[in-house]
Prior knowledge:
The radius of gyration is 21 Å and the shape is globular. α1 (2-17) packs across α8 (206-217) and α12 (280-291) packs antiparallel against α14. It is 48% helix and 15% strand. It contains 14 helices and 11 strands. A hairpin with a 2-residue loop joins β6 (126-129) and β7 (132-135).
Amino acid sequence: MASQDAIHELQKFLSARIIGQQVLVDRLLIALLADGHLLVEGAPGLAKTRAIKILSQGIECDFHRVQFTPDLLPADLTGTEIYRPQDGSFTFQRGPLFHNLILADEINRAPAKVQSALLEAMEERQITVGSVTYPLPELFLVMATQNPIEQEGTYPLPEAQLDRFLMRVNVHYPTAEAEKEILQLNRDEARAGTTNTASGQVLVTQKDLFDARQEVLDVYMADNLEAYLLHLVLTTRTPQAYGDDLAKWVQYGASPRASIALDRCARALAWLAGRDYVAPEDIQIMAYDVMRHRLILTYEAEADGITPDKLIGELIARIAVP
């Protein structure tokens, strides 16, 4: 399949230029294939900005980075109407959200009204200014980042808004071997004068990507696996069936958006692996990224050092695989 070959070429292209962050590379591709948005959390300097910038250079699209700050206004994202004194009219000046790929850097630095403007655009795929509604591009992906180290002066995203992200990806430090490769890549790029850039070669057209999305939707999932997927999500709402310890950890379980996201992401992961069917491992692997930001734990769980990932791992261990 031409679209699958193109996506695999893009995957190789990214992996050669983003060293030590294969999980981030794969999740970016899955978000593209599942038509969703990413929330990425990690310390500074872990190639978050570089990843989406290089991704934009391998796809037929345009890219814009927005640095979120406390003085940002919603109009700085959506655009605003500019008055023209020559004829007394107003002209709409489009904002950064009208690009295909958006990097919302340090999203928790901006106040709630700016976060709300971004998340509304993500959900509705349109922007309304005054009485006029403007559609966003069909290819539209937001990668928002958060720095887990410094929380002073930030505006944490409410759970209802976190739910609108397809996945929440935790980015970790690379291994010693990977960091050695990073040093070599940095020197090579510096010699070539191409630091933080890639070749302008377009490997995937928008048609390739939209065709790939249709193929992902056609990936086969057996009825018993679909029931297993739903059971994983539904058990977060009624965890007492699998132990009193789980029941005292969970305050609120995952929403139906989690079921939809897990279905789309598991199919995309199987498709990337070259399979036309979903395996139980696809569901289990994606469950962490899909559900970790959709679970609200109790104070007792937090006091015991229980994390959402720990809870998800317990569910996967206790629920029988069909």
